[in-house]
Specification:
The complex is a heterotrimer of chains A (307), B (283) and C (249). Chain A is mainly α and 307 residues long. Chain A has ten helices and no strands. The chains are: A mainly alpha (307), B alpha/beta (283), C alpha/beta (249).
Chain lengths: 307, 283, 249
């Protein structure tokens, strides 16, 4: 490595004290100073990694040992983690989960549509829609305020009690309806917040181009709004998958109820653990995907800030 | 020195007492020497804490007031209490849900009675006294339902009936195992009755006396489709439910046996469950 | 003599109790560019927004090609089809490519067939040297490029009048020039324009008339050379002096 700095004089500095690493050809390679720094950093990182790994093992190991040697462990394992029994009841639980899945699909699509409609209603400015806007606000306030369990009971048991001719009293239909009514209120608010965060200048530009109110909504505001609220909406979807189980109080057998029936026969709680696993198999991929989408959209947003 | 002398008798007494109590604990299946309020290891000393359902239905309890002693199970409870030496003032009532009491774990009561059928599975996690009543299961419905007029078990399946029962009951087992049908399963009988009243299920399976009550009082135009033949051979009758390996179980069983033997039980049955006969049998 | 493209008559605008524009009267003949200069808050942006019917005036009249567009029964969407507006903050639609931004209005508002609109759009982009950016998203373009796309987007609908609201205020001084040359090209092609700007370069090179807006009133107006070099009103002189000191003259 040449000891010529090529960047001006450094009075008093001996060549060995400073070596910029530039050779006569102008190509750069690391100076001794930089190499020494890199060595030191590498050593420091290795030491940290070693400490971290050791301490993790220590903590986890201690935890595992404490649990496994505790007096109740054998009983705990048999009561909650009897895998042979769990595998035996798994088909029944998966069958019950079919109800959860179907409910999620039907309710999910309906909620998306109804929530969007209510959000649009609430963000409209036309005076002709004022009474509907008022109703939409009342709707959102009421159904975000009542526990969904109550709504399910009221709709699932209460409405059929009126014995109105022509109105279905099928518990699955009514239960799904109750879920849709409640979740639409939440989703409407999420979408509305997305719409409100689209900068008014976007709307100004769109209107200036001659787009009508509806065209502005459809081509400019909604695409941006929906993209923005996709992460919280996916969160709501995960919550929906789990909340569909509440319709079991109306007599519908879902995964949780199926587990409960089995548990009630043998007093072994492994079926509950199996049901939990079934739910996790569906929700974890969904939440991971949501995280990834959120990360991507944030990257894009921050890139825009450069302009 | 004087202090030590005073302490010694206390120590001796403590040792004796602990020996006594430990021997009682160790021999869960051995008989207690006496079955009286002073010696029974109840949840609350000197008090007999009895539990039943919330709400407690007719004819088991009248007006949901077990303290009155009115109703079949209320009467049985006080009869057993008397037999054990507790007067009415020493009896305390608490309420539990049906399935919470069957679950393993410590209890807030000495014994629980709400039409608990004695089964081998349940015996693994709780104690039962000897049975105090045996009854078939029956199906409650309403006039004009899909199963109105059905006379055979096969007829139920053919009618495409939607039958309901509460979770963790033997009624549910009857539907699933004996009838081989898919059940609508509810958290408790109250919810199931609501569904029946709403005609959201075609029939509800409960024990026969409850069926009579529901069809006569609760369900508009209620009917009993029939008793399910052979549904009482699967279970061993209703028993008083106690926590597992409870030291007082043997005394309670003795009390039930006593009131059965001396005719008190039959008198109570005659007073409160007269309508037990008379429902057609489905087979 | 043909009617002027734009004519404002005693236009007044208030926000609450604050008077933002007062007694605004001017005309814009076809193929000319009128430039409004003035301090921040003097009402320049509001003026343009009122012409574009984004804000409602409180008195006076606005006539576009002789038609009263400030009338109560006017349909703003119809009016805006003849106007184009470019904003300080570009306002490109971030979820669409440059090309999609440009063809949105022609296809959706004017019902032009998509391939025709695409051809026209590419022509326009080529003319202003941005054809290679057609499939990029706005966040990949520099500020100057974005603003030029915004101008092209409003041109795609062949407006009668182009409103340019401080279009270089958000740009690096380095990038101002490329936008300025675009506007010069537009002038050369005969576009009728009203500009609000801080950039005296625009006023000098593009304007047929310069108006000085002071606290919501047009205090002085005239040919650029006269206005910018020897204004008569003291307020105008003071304003130009401050701009000069800030290095923007």
């Amino acid at each position: 490595m040449k000891k010529n700095s090529g960047r001006g004089s450094f009075d008093g500095a001996t060549p060995s004290e400073f070596n910029s690493g530039y050779d006569f050809g102008g190509q750069w390679s690391p100076s001794e100073l930089e190499l020494a720094r890199r060595q030191a950093r590498k050593k420091k990182n290795q030491r940290s990694a070693l400490i971290a790994t050791l301490s993790s093992f220590l903590v986890l190991g201690t935890l595992v040992i404490v649990i496994v040697t505790s007096p109740g462990w054998e009983t705990l394992r048999n009561t909650f983690f009897k895998w042979a029994y769990g595998v035996e009841v798994l088909p029944k639980i998966i069958l019950g989960f079919g109800t959860n899945a179907m409910l999620t699909v039907i309710a999910g699509t309906s909620v998306a549509l109804l929530g969007l409609a209510i959000a649009l209603l609430r963000t409209s400015r036309s005076p002709a829609l004022t009474p509907f806007r008022f109703l939409a606000t009342a709707y959102v306030d009421i159904f975000r305020g009542i526990p969904m369990l109550l709504v399910i009971l009221l709709v699932g048991f209460g409405i059929p009690a009126l014995q109105i001719k022509g109105l279905t009293n099928n518990v699955l239909v009514l239960g799904t309806l109750a879920v849709i009514i409640t979740y639409s209120a939440y989703v409407a608010e999420v979408i509305r917040s997305g719409i409100l965060t689209v900068h008014p200048s976007q709307r100004a530009a769109a209107r200036s181009l001659g787009l009508s109110h509806f065209q502005t909504l459809r081509h400019v505001v909604l695409p941006q709004a929906l993209k923005r609220v996709t992460p919280p909406l996916l969160n709501d979807l995960v919550a929906l998958i789990k909340d569909t189980g509440l319709v079991s109080i109306l007599g519908v057998t879902d995964a949780v109820r199926a587990a409960q029936i089995q548990t009630a026969k043998t007093f072994n709680y492994t079926p509950y653990v199996m049901a939990a696993i079934v739910f996790l198999l569906v929700t974890i991929p969904l939440t991971r995907w949501t995280d990834r989408m959120l990360r991507n959209s944030l990257e894009k947003q921050n890139a825009q800030g450069q302009a | 020195m004087k202090k030590l002398l005073k302490v010694i008798p206390l120590l001796v007494a403590a040792l004796v007492l602990s020996a006594c109590s430990s021997s009682e604990d160790n021999s869960a299946s051995s008989e207690s020497t006496t079955c009286s309020p002073e010696s029974l290891a109840t949840v609350e000393a000197g008090t007999l804490t009895i539990a039943t359902g919330e709400p407690a239905y007719y004819p088991w309890v009248i007006d949901d007031k077990p303290e009155s002693g009115e109703g079949f199970e209320a009467a049985v409870a006080y009869a057993v209490a008397q037999e054990l030496g507790y007067d009415n003032a020493a009896v305390k009532w608490v309420r539990t849900s049906f399935d919470a009491a069957i679950a393993p774990g410590p209890k807030t009561f000495d014994f629980n009675l709400q039409q608990y059928s004695i089964t081998d599975e349940r015996k693994q996690v709780v104690d039962f006294s000897s049975p105090y009543y045996k009854s078939n299961q029956a199906i409650v419905s309403f006039k004009g339902s899909k199963i109105d007029g059905v006379t055979t078990l096969q007829g139920l399946a053919d009618a495409g009936a939607k039958l309901g029962a509460a979770v963790s009951t033997t009624s549910l087992d009857v539907i699933e195992t004996q009838l081989g049908l898919k059940a609508s399963v509810f958290n408790d009988n109250a919810a199931a009755v609501t569904a029946l009243k709403n005609k959201q299920i075609d029939g509800l399976v409960v024990d026969l006396p409850t069926a009579f009550y529901l069809s006569a009082v609760e369900v508009p135009n209620g009917i009993i489709v029939g008793q399910i033949d052979g549904s009482d051979s699967g279970d061993q009758g209703f028993g008083l439910l106690l926590s597992k390996d409870n030291p007082i179980t043997s005394c309670v069983t003795k009390a039930v046996d006593a009131i059965r033997d001396n005719g008190t039980l039959q008198a109570i049955i005659d007073q409160w469950l007269t309508a037990s006969a008379g429902a057609p049998v489905l087979s | 003599m043909t009617a002027p493209v734009l004519r404002l008559d005693k236009v007044r605008k208030t926000f609450g109790s604050e008077v933002v524009l007062e007694d605004i009267t001017f005309t814009v003949p076809v193929h000319t560019a009128t430039v409004f200069i003035g301090a921040s808050g003097s009402g320049k942006s509001t003026l343009l927004r009122c012409i574009n019917l984004l804000d409602q005036i409180d008195d006076g009249q606005i006539l576009l090609d002789g038609e009263d567009i400030s009338a109560a029964d006017i349909n703003p969407d119809e009016v805006r089809k003849k106007l184009g507006m470019v904003f300080q903050s570009f306002n490109l639609f971030p979820h669409m490519t440059v090309l999609e931004n440009v063809i949105l209005a022609p296809t959706k508002v004017q019902g032009v067939a998509k391939d025709v609109a695409v051809d026209e759009a590419l022509e326009l982009l080529k003319r202003f040297g941005l054809k290679d950016k057609a499939d990029q998203y706005p966040d990949r373009l520099s500020g100057g490029q974005q603003q030029r796309v915004a101008i092209i987007r409003s041109l795609a609908r062949h407006p009668r009048l182009l409103l340019l609201d401080e279009i270089t205020s958000a740009l690096d001084p380095v990038l101002v020039n490329e936008v300025l040359s675009t506007v010069r090209d537009l002038k050369r092609e005969g576009m009728t324009m009203v500009l609000a700007t801080h950039e005296m370069g625009f006023a000098k090179q593009v304007a047929d008339e310069v108006c000085y807006l002071h606290n919501g009133r047009i205090l002085e107006w005239g040919a650029p050379s006269a206005m910018l070099e020897s204004p008569s009103r003291p307020e105008t002189k003071e304003f130009l002096r401050r701009v000069h000191d800030a290095g923007r003259l």
